[in-house]
Structure to design on (442 residues):
């Protein structure tokens, strides 16, 4: 995708360029949000004016394996000065993996005025754009959240089982070693592991990072993405598709690609993913 | 960041290099998450690229650390004392954690004997960065320690 086409085609949609962000740093209606895997990154330097939303502390319920509810989401956005009419632009490390995850959680609350900075942190840094260690402070907003609605973009275990029985398409976005069952989890991470290795029968394996240009972290062109998801594994835009990984973070990236870049209408992220499926009694596993 | 007193705790092993133990003691003293993050960032800022006489980019893939998305490369070069000088390159600009680990490892174990280096367990990564480190990140960082072991063992 050329830079020119991206700007024209995507600025009005869900992707914005680093240049767009640079031109909107002082726009009071825009809030730049960094979301990373590495907790050292934001405090070591970030886009001026950007706030941080942490996937473990801010987006996940600290007791139940679930996402935060309406009250906590409201509190989170108010604290960061995000109002109902604010445009939120996510960016982050690992080719926007965590940015897409945060984007997905925002969608559970119907927060639609949200975008992703194409290329994420990597592109911003490679372009030698300004970074700062100064953490901004914004006046608390009066944001009012919708009730969380998981139904359209989040899949649960029983739904996945039904999906499987109907022979509907699924994309396993983990590495080929995880897909085959060769690699399970690290000994220090039993909470992210599973008792059985392999994949959900019928799922196709497309590692999430295939959607990325590794040199600058940008998404591949529409033509390249279509070649992967429609050409190689035969998905159709009218399909109901479920994406999964280990805990639902990598698959939120693929969910974003399918839904927003390729225009699939019915895509869900199964965030229970392999840590739920591979630990559940009696569920079918393929190797 | 102020000076540290060093409580005992987080000990890696009696035979680990004292400098490495000192880092762990410093970190165990920092109970506030933000202080710990700041400490690690300050270490990362001390990271220096490897000298040109060791290697220049593009680096040989046999020195690449598996699973490390910070694009880390490791060299273990036997010196005149038959000990090993360790060099670590971190190519990704976002590799702050990898750079912090590189600074700790180079300061602690570069120039040490094969036996001393091999006694440093990869689980120091969790002791340095804490249990909240994601699995993927841990795989990359422990990969740096494992790569050092591999190169030292094969020398």
């Amino acid at each position: 995708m050329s830079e020119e086409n991206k700007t024209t085609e995507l600025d009005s949609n869900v992707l914005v360029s680093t240049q767009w962000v640079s031109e909107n740093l002082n726009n009071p209606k825009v809030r730049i949000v960094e979301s990373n895997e590495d907790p050292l990154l934001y405090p070591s330097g970030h886009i001026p004016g950007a706030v941080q939303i942490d996937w473990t502390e801010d987006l996940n319920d600290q007791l139940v394996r679930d996402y935060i509810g309406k009250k906590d989401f409201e509190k989170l956005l108010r604290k960061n000065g995000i109002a109902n009419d604010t445009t939120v632009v996510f960016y982050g490390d690992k080719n926007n993996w965590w940015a897409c995850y945060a984007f997905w959680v925002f969608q559970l609350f119907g927060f639609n005025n949200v975008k992703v900075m194409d290329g994420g942190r990597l592109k911003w840094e490679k372009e030698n754009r300004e970074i700062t260690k100064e953490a901004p402070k914004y006046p608390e907003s009066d944001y009012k959240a919708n009730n969380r609605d998981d139904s359209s973009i989040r899949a649960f275990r029983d739904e996945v089982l039904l999906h499987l029985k109907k022979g509907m398409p699924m994309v396993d976005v983990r590495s080929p070693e995880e897909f085959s069952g060769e690699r399970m989890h690290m000994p220090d991470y039993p909470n992210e592991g599973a008792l059985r290795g392999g994949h959900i029968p019928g799922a196709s394996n497309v590692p999430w990072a295939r959607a990325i240009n590794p040199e600058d972290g940008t998404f591949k062109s529409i033509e390249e993405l279509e070649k992967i998801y429609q050409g190689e594994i035969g998905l159709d835009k009218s399909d109901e598709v479920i994406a999964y990984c280990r805990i639902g973070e990598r698959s939120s990236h693929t969910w974003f690609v399918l839904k927003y870049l390729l225009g699939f209408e019915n895509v869900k992220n199964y965030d229970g993913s392999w840590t739920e499926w591979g630990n559940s009694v009696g569920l079918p596993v393929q190797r | 960041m102020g000076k540290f007193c060093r409580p005992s705790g987080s000990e890696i092993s009696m035979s680990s290099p004292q400098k490495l133990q000192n880092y762990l003691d410093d970190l165990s003293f920092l109970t506030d998450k933000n202080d710990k993050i700041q400490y690690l960032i300050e270490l990362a800022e001390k990271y220096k690229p490897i000298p040109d006489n060791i290697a220049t980019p593009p680096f040989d893939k046999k020195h690449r650390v598996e699973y490390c998305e910070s694009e880390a490369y490791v060299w273990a070069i036997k010196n005149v004392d038959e000990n090993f000088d360790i060099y670590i390159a971190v190519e990704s600009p976002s590799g702050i954690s990898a750079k912090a680990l590189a600074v700790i490892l180079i300061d602690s174990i570069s120039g040490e004997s094969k036996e001393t280096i091999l006694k440093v367990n990869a689980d120091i990564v969790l002791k340095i960065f804490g249990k909240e480190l994601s699995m993927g990140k841990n795989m990359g960082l422990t990969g740096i320690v494992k790569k050092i072991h591999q190169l030292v063992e094969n020398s």
